[in-house]
Amino acid sequence: MPFRPVRLLLPIVLVTVLLVPLAGSATPLQQLSGRTMGTTWSVTVAAAPGRLPALREGVQARLDEVVAQMSTWEPDSDLSRYNRAPAGSWHPLPAPAAQVVDAALALARESAGAFDPTVGPLVDAWGYGPAGPQAAAPPPEALAAARARVGWQHLRLLPDGRLWQPGGVNVDLSAIAKGYGVDRVAEWLLGAGVESFLVEVGGELRGHGRKPDGSPWRVAVERPAPDDSRLDDVQLVVRLDGLAVATSGDYRHRDERDGRSVSHIIDPRTGAPVTHALAAVTVLHPQAMQADALATTLQVLGPRQGLEWARTRGLAALLVWHEGEGFGSAMTPAFAGHVVQP
Fold this sequence. Notes:
The chain has 342 residues and is an alpha+beta fold. It has a single domain (1-25, 85-169, 211-342), classed as T-fold, CATH 3.10.520. 30% of the residues lie in helices and 27% in strands. It has nine helices and 17 strands. The chain has helices at 52-70, 78-83, 95-110, 120-125, 140-148, 174-191, 288-301, 303-312, 333-336, and strands spanning 15-18, 29-36, 39-46, 89-92, 162-165, 197-201, 204-208, 218-224, 231-239, 244-249, 254-257, 260-263, 266-267, 272-273, 278-285, 316-323, 326-331.
């Protein structure tokens, strides 16, 4: 698998694409699909059937490039080679990978470390990496060793794309690269002359243009059921009018450690799983890369701090938290502006 599966968790708030058949449309909607990053991708486009093979090949090629540059599961990727680079060395990154690292570092600074692209050793220590789950919390000495290797402040990125390897730092872009993949596909489709499409990679989506009937792309955000066994009816519908949507959460992904229920979400600042009641976050943003990373950031910050952090920055975010036997939720004004009124 090319990216850490723990960083590709299914969210509590599931997003469903709403497509209405368009009888008699001159340019009917067509769907392409494939696999990437340990998950699936799909693209819905308004294009003539004859263009589909070339479009599918182009989409897959763009996503394969992201994996070749930014996967921590592929030993020959540019990022894997950086992670193995000797201490005290500068490692050149391709321009797209450098762009993603730069965005990750900017968000790490903005969030005071709630988002941290070097968190991988802590993910491994808690049993959410390639070695698989474990029944108990990591021993103090293992946790201390992992924390010593974590810290976005260790990284230095030069304008020419060279990244400093101080020694032992392991960069993991799984919380942002999937969104970048969505953006990369969207930009390629625009360059290929496709003006109406919906791109989805592992649950992250970005819509552009209008459907052939003139309506915007819409997605449904579903309400979680209190009994943790199913999803209830649609909670709300949002428009993706030139926007992307990303989710983060651990509603269906918690483990038992030492007799306690433990979240998969690791707080890089404490070195431990989060303990707050936030169950899921949905973020809207013009860039899927930003929506992806911001959803993870808010998930670490928690319901109260996360909501305030999002509001003060004008972010479009929906937060859902555990409340008694059910769930509470709140959205920022920017998110409310994209909700389709019933």
